[in-house]
Amino acid sequence: xxxxxxxxxxxxxxxxxxxxxxxxxxxxxxxxxxxxxxxxxxxxxxxxxxxxxxxxxxxxxxxxxxxxxxxxxxxxxxxxxxxxxxxxxxxxxxxxxxxxxxxxxxxxxxxxxxxxxxxxxxxxxxxxxxxxxxxxxxxxxxxxxxxxxxxxxxxxxxxxxxxxxxxxxxxxxxxxxxxxxxxxxxxxxxxxxxxxxxxxxxxxxxxxxxxxxxxxxxxxxxxxxxxxxxxxxxxxxxxxxxxxxxxxxxxxxxxxxxxxxxxxxxxxxxxxxxxxxxxxxxxxxxxxxxxxxxxxxxxxxxxxxxxxxxx
Length: 311
Known about the structure:
Elements: E1 4-10, H1 19-38, E2 41-47, H2 50-66, H3 75-100, E3 107-110, E4 113-116, E5 128-134, H4 136-144, E6 148-152, E7 156-161, E8 166-169, H5 172-180, E9 184-187, E10 193-198, E11 201-204, H6 211-221, E12 226-231, E13 236-238, E14 246-248, E15 250-252, H7 253-261, H8 271-283, E16 288-293, H9 297-300, E17 307-310
């Protein structure tokens, strides 16, 4: 029997919000991922990086403020840094967990670039808030440089960047080769490094890519059997957060679209996951999507928890 090929998308809960939290969180995450490996899944893993890339952006900005000879790090470089250090923690924790179970398997992180359209409407209406709080004077300097800022009353100003849609995963052939060799691959971390193709060169874009969006594309490009989205809740709910909250154990794409049209899924939380599921199933109708939490995933792959979405 051939292994089931799955792309696993990890949310913030899988990583924590600080370096110390991440060290502890990835040990728990590694156990859940190892359960999947023991259940005969070949895994390609992608992950969020919101707190991590924001921390790096703050640190590099403050470094420039203190040591004026340093060049400020652009968003693409901050994204690359976050991919490296998050991938490092995941691959080491997972490798150790697998070896403790007697499983010797290569776990690799691929620094991944994702092309975006320079004319994507997201660049004209950026929505992703990152970095430190700034004074009004610092914010005005950012605006003069062509960057966007937003104000949070009583706190200050913060940088805002675009979240364009992904076009192509540049390193997809390398990812596919390792996945086909039954290795565990960590790729497209934080949505991937957004780049714009100019002739034969790739230029980093001042943007971030929604990690659920890239998870759906990665699963489609790899022709994965399953897309597993691990989040903070054990399943998808209708009327979430109300006294009429109802768990949804199974959904079709048509049902998911209808619930989306009703405004059932909150933008920025569950909605991107549903949109990723729909995009993946449009490319691979024979696949399935599982949305659940890290704590519930072992039961969810047995059909005892989670939400399964099919075409």
